[in-house]
C-alpha cells in the first residue's frame, strides 16, 4: 500500500483506534471503547453507548487494511499501521 492510498483511508476515528491499539492491551472493542471514552470526556451518553459497536467496526476496518492484527489475544499495530500513523502525524 503506497502513501497516497494510506492517506485516502485515514480518518480521525481510525487514527484514534489505531493510537489506542498502539498503546497496548486492547483485546476487544470494549477495551477500545473504554479508552476512547476516557480520552473524550465530552461524549454524549448516546455516543458513549454506541462506542463498543463503533470501535468493533473500526477494528474490523483496520484489520482489513492490514494496519492491525491479533497477537496473543490482543490487537497490535502492524508495520503498515505504524506507517499510517506516521503519515497522519506528518500531516498535522
Key attributes of the depicted protein:
two-stranded antiparallel sheet; 2 strands; 92 residues; 68% helix
Structure description:
By secondary structure, the chain is mainly alpha-helical. Helices cover 68% and strands 9% of the residues. The protein is built from 5 helices and 2 strands, in the order ααααββα. A two-stranded antiparallel ribbon has the order 1-2. The model has no long low-confidence stretch (mean pLDDT 92).
Share of helical residues: 55-70%
Low-confidence stretches: none
Beta strand count: 2
Q: Return the structural class.
A: mainly alpha
Distance between the termini: 21 Å
Mean pLDDT: 92
Biggest sheet character: 2 strands, antiparallel
Q: Please state how the strands of the largest beta sheet are arranged side by side.
A: 1-2
Q: What is the chains' assembly state?
A: single chain
Order of helix and strand elements from N to C terminus: HHHHEEH
Number of helices, where a helix is a run of at least 4 consecutive DSSP H or I residues: 5
Radius of gyration: 13 Å
The backbone outline, from C-alpha atoms, is globular
Beta-strand percentage range: 5-15%
